[in-house]
Amino acid sequence: xxxxxxxxxxxxxxxxxxxxxxxxxxxxxxxxxxxxxxxxxxxxxxxxxxxxxxxxxxxxxxxxxxxxxxxxxxxxxxxxxxxxxxxxxxxxxxxxxxxxxxxxxxxxxxxxxxxxxxxxxxxxxxxxxxxxxxxxxxxxxxxxxxxxxxxxxxxxxxxxxxxxxxxxxxxxxxxxxxxxxxxxxxxxxxxxxxxxxxxxxxxxxxxxxxxxxxxxxxxxxxxxxxxxxxxxxxxxxxxxxxxxxxxxxxxxxxxxxxxxxxxxxxxxxxxxxxxxxxxxx
Length: 281
Ligand code: ARG
Description:
Elements: H1 2-8, H2 14-17, H3 21-31, E1 41-42, E2 48-49, E3 54-59, E4 68-70, E5 73-75, H4 77-88, E6 92-97, H5 100-104, H6 107-110, E7 116-117, H7 125-128, E8 131-133, E9 138-147, E10 162-166, H8 170-178, E11 184-188, H9 191-199, E12 205-209, H10 210-219, E13 223-235, E14 238-240, H11 245-261, H12 263-272
Parallel strand pairs: 3-6, 3-7, 10-11, 10-12
Antiparallel strand pairs: 1-2, 4-5, 8-14, 9-12, 9-13
Bound molecules: arginine (ARG).
Arginine binds at residues 59-60, 63, 67, 100, 119-122, 169-170, 191, 209.
């Protein structure tokens, strides 16, 4: 098995795998290597790894409290769960920060940038065609963030105004499908730019997942979450499509065990407080 993957893409080297998302995309397109497997190693239990001894995790920053920089280190709810997965195989977690678009399109996984994507990523049918999702590990819904002095409380109220969305996300799709036609959508590459745009009044509102927007509003009294849309989303971790069934299995058993033995609840409480479901506003 691993002999085969070793022969497929001799041109790909480790250093190129560390290029930022955009540069990597350009390399891949220029050389026609899209979807190519890269050199991997295999653990005793059959888990394939792009780097020996490490669980290499792609994420998109910032997405607090799921993944964000704190004192020079990437931490968060997703990262804690990835730590559990890594521990069970005696691996170190290495986080690769990359664009969400490349994560949700499967590109980061296909090009061997990482073994697993942990990015507060919603399981959708469209994505499930190009990446393999773990069992769901978190529930979310879309929400609307506005400046604290705003009169806007719904998408309809935004008629003739601007709405910030994060590129490649379910929030972007929801806004395209549900905002009035005369709302101008402004696309931001990451959540930090989006929340900053709302906070500084560059846009009239921003749409994203409830957990991250409540977290942001809780520490910024210049903004507030005024609406939730019942999109009923579930987050999954992702591995390369048909590329790493053993890793997927390991992730699923690790989450199930953590839910059973209380570890999941402890991690949840650490990042969201003790509230059973929703972060309070
Ligand atoms: N849950 C949404 C989606 O899957 C947003 C995820 C964005 N994640 C991130 N780390 N920026 O589309």
